[in-house]
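User:
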Amino acid sequence: MSAIEKTRHDFTIRGAEPGDLGAIVEIDQQVSGAKKTRYWRDALELYSSHRDKGFFLVAEREHRVAGFILGEIRAWEFGSPPCGWVYAIGVARANLLEGVGTQLLDALCAHFQKANVDKVRTMIARQDHELLSFFRSYGMMAGPYQQLELELGSH
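Assistant: Predicted structure:
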């Protein structure tokens, strides 16, 4: 993967690097409300060594990280063929409505297509209307699988 993969609207999309950790943690904290330094450090380590099926990308302008996306190619149980999964996406509040999220998702989907994957999926909390709207505006809709869960201790 080259250092510069795609540039649009003054943002460069590239692979995340260890030096991006602080910005990624800060952006995620803006989005989620929680500071998860260890989680993002582990993700950076894991995906920097799995660049063939997992992708951790950042959007950068003037050496400042404006957003990130994390995805992986996976084949799940129950007969699901390999597809691309978006695990996380975050855009700095200062860069909302500048197309950063779309550029990141475009770049991630390009990696998936290059690996001969023809579908992309994600899971989103029903109450996260902002993120649901973003993915729907990109063209994503409900897929063929239903997520189920059980509260442990109640069974």
